[in-house]
C-alpha cells in the first residue's frame, strides 16, 4: 500500500552538523516507525517527498539511496515504481556485523563457545513447530551431505551445506532474536571459515560422517517431538564439531565482505 505521511518536525540544532540528505534520511526512518510501515508498503513518490521535506530532487534521491544501501527499502522505476519498504536481508546484516568484527580478534573457539550455548536451545525450541515439510527438508539435507568424494573442495562445500540443517531448525523456532543470532553465526561459518590445505581429505570425510550421523539422530528425535532428546544431541554435536574443526585447523578468514558477495541465498522453509 502507499501511505500518506504527515510532515514531522526537523530536529533542532542539528542542521549545522549533518547534511540535508542525512536529515531527510532520519526523518523518513521516523515516519516509517510512526506509521508502523511493513515490508511491501510504499513510501510517497519522489515529488511528494520533496514537497513534504521542502528539499530538492537530488537531496531526496540521496536520502533514498542511503536507505536502500542500509537495506530498508528497494527502489524501482516506472509508473508504479518508487520506494518500497523491505525486510533487511540477513546478508546485509551479516556484512555490517563483519565490518565490526573485522577489527576484533574472533577465534573459532569464541564462535563455538557461543554455538554450544545457543544451538541446543534453538533446536529444542523448534521441535514443537517443525512442519512435515521442514522435517522432510532436514532428512533431505542429510542425504545431500553424505560424504561421497575425497576431493577437498567438494568436502568443504558439503560441510558448508551441513549448516543448512541448522538453518532449517532456526526457521521453525518462534524466538526471532535467537533465530537471528544463530543464522548470523551460520552465515559467518559458511562464508568465512577456511581449513588448512595440509589436512588429509580423510579428516574431512570423518567430519562429514560424524555430522551425518548426529544430524540423523536429531532429525529422528525431532520427528518424534522429543525436545529434550534434541537438546542433548545438539549439545553433543556442538562439542564434537568444535573438536573436528580444531583437528582440521579451521580458522576465520578475517576479511571484509564485498557488496558483490551479497547475492541472497535461498532461505530455508519458514
TrEMBL record:
Q: Does the keyword DNA damage apply?
A: no
**In this protein, which residues make up the domain named HTH gntR-type?**
18-88
Q: Which GO terms describe its molecular function?
A: DNA binding; DNA-binding transcription factor activity
**Source taxonomy lineage?**
Bacteria, Pseudomonadati, Pseudomonadota, Alphaproteobacteria, Hyphomicrobiales
Write the record's keywords in alphabetical order, separated by commas. DNA-binding, Transcription, Transcription regulation
Q: Which CDD domains match?
A: WHTH_GntR (cd07377)
Q: Which organism is it from?
A: Bradyrhizobium sacchari
Q: State a single Pfam family of this protein.
A: GntR
The keyword Transcription regulation belongs to this UniProt entry's keyword annotation: yes
Task: Please give the superkingdom of this protein's source.
Answer: Bacteria
Q: What is this protein called?
A: DNA-binding FadR family transcriptional regulator
SMART domains, sorted: FCD, HTH_GNTR
Amino acid at each position: 500500500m502507499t501511505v500518506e505521511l504527515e510532515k514531522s518536525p526537523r530536529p533542532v540544532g542539528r542542521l549545522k552538523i549533518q547534511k540535508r540528505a542525512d536529515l531527510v534520511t532520519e526523518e523518513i526512518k521516523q515516519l516509517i516507525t510512526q506509521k508502523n510501515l511493513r515490508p511491501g508498503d510504499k513510501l510517497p513518490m519522489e515529488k511528494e517527498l520533496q514537497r513534504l521535506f521542502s528539499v530538492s530532487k537530488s537531496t531526496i534521491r540521496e536520502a533514498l539511496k542511503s536507505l536502500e544501501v542500509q537495506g530498508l527499502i528497494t527502489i524501482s522505476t516506472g509508473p508504479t515504481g518508487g520506494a518500497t519498504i523491505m525486510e533487511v536481508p540477513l546478508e546485509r546484516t551479516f556484512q555490517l556485523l563483519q565490518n565490526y568484527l573485522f577489527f576484533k580478534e574472533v577465534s573459532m573457539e569464541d564462535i563455538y563457545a557461543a554455538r554450544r550455548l545457543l544451538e541446543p536451545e534453538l533446536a529444542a525450541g523448534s521441535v514443537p513447530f517443525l512442519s512435515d515439510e521442514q522435517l522432510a527438508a532436514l532428512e533431505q539435507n542429510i542425504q545431500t551431505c553424505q560424504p561421497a568424494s575425497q576431493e577437498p573442495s567438494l568436502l568443504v562445500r558439503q560441510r558448508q551445506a551441513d549448516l543448512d540443517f541448522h538453518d532449517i531448525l532456526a526457521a521453525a523456532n518462534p524466538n526471532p532474536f535467537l533465530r537471528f543470532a544463530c543464522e548470523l553465526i551460520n552465515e559467518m561459518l559458511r562464508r568465512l571459515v577456511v581449513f588448512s590445505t595440509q589436512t588429509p581429505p580423510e579428516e574431512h570425510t570423518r567430519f562429514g560422517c560424524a555430522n551425518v550421523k548426529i544430524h540423523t539422530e536429531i532429525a529422528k528425535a525431532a520427528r518424534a517431538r522429543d525436545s529434550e532428546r534434541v537438546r542433548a544431541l545438539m549439545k553433543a554435536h556442538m562439542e564434537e564439531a568444535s573438536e573436528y574443526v580444531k583437528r582440521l585447523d579451521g580458522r576465520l578468514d578475517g576479511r571484509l565482505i564485498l557488496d558483490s558477495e551479497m547475492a541472497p541465498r535461498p532461505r530455508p522453509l519458514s
